[in-house]
Structure formats: structure tokens, C-alpha cells
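[step 3/7] fold_predict: job queued, chain A
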Amino acid sequence: MCGRFALAVPRTRLEEHFRAELPELPGRYNIAPGQDVLAVIVEPDDSGRRQGRLFRWGLVPFWAKDAKIGNKLVNARIESAADKPAFRSAFARRRCIIPAQGFYEWRRAGRESVPYFYELTTGEPMGLAGLWESWHPQQGDTLFTCVILTCPANELVAQVHERMPVVLRREDYEAWLAQAAPGPELAAALALPRRPEEFSARRVSPKVNTPRSDGSELLSPWPPV
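[step 4/7] structure written:
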């Protein structure tokens, strides 16, 4: 799964990497479900322009009767998202890329949850594959939400957890954001994790276990030297 991630990368660098116009946002080191996250989408006006928007993390399908369903729809398996009622429509028409500096996973050690942080060895931002939806309540404003797709973990992440987020390759961004649904070849390729040697991992502060915690110190190796 993917339950937390960090994004503290300068906007100019993100705009160059994702070729999108993005809002200026503060760095965040412990982004959790239920919070607003930045996602890159293609504007639905046939311009093909990429735009960054904020979505609440936890997808609420357009047909849902209650927005609380989003609390349970934080991740979706890419192997089955195209067929699941909650994700089928979004997978076909509303895909997005969620920028990240890296993501967290936890290893169980007795009664303790030990957090690890994963990032690309190149130092590039990650583009996590996601889906987005708009939900119209009977009263109030439209709610825009998203979900992060996951795939089986590679050998590095599997030491801690059996799943990991789908980390898109830069050359796949255009196809993922295209209006047409992903073809079977791309969908099958994305269901395979990227190679373990493309990632680095380190144990980090247990403070990240609390969603209220934030700050660059959360990414420092633990225990402190």
C-alpha cells in the first residue's frame, strides 16, 4: 500500500519534470490520507495542457451516496482497478500523476511499527500513478478526490511490505495522462514494479507514525548519529 509520502521539492523543478503549471505549495514531509494532495492532470479542453490541482486523498466515486467512502479508498490495485466499480470510470477517463519526493512503508517489529523512506537513486521526483473523481453532494461544493494505485513490491520494498505505489517512468507520463484508456501493454507494464536498484531506502524517525508530525527531520536517518 501507500499510506504516507513526502513532497518538498521546489516548484520550478517540479514544473520542469512534469511539464505542468503548478501552484506554489509549502514543503510537506508527512502527507496522509484525508489531506489535500497535488496531482497533475490534463485539462479536459482538448488543449493537452498539463495542470496541477489539489485533490483530497481518498477517492469518492461519482455515484457514492456518502463521501465517507473515501476514507477506505486510499489505494487501489492497478491489476484490478479497470474492473472495480469504484475505480472503473476514473481508470478509463480520469487518470492523474501525484508528485512525490518519496514514500514511506512500515515494518512490524513486535508491537512496534518501524518506518522506512524510499526515494529514487537519481534524486528525481517520483510520479505516482493515480485516479481522480469529482463528487457532487446534494448541498455544498463539488468534492475532488484521488486515489494512489499500487503494484506488487519489488525486492527492496518487499522486505517491509508486499505492495508499493506505482512509480511511473517519465516516458510513460504522456500515455498515462492521455484521454484514451491505457492499452493492455502499458497496463501490464505498470503492474510490474520498477527495479529495486532504482530506489534507495533508509529507516527514519518514528515521529512519522503520527500524521500531525511534519518537518524535514522526518527524512533523516534513524537512529540519529
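[step 5/7] annotate
The CA atoms of residues 4 and 32 lie 5 Å apart.
The chain has a mean pLDDT of 94.
exit 0
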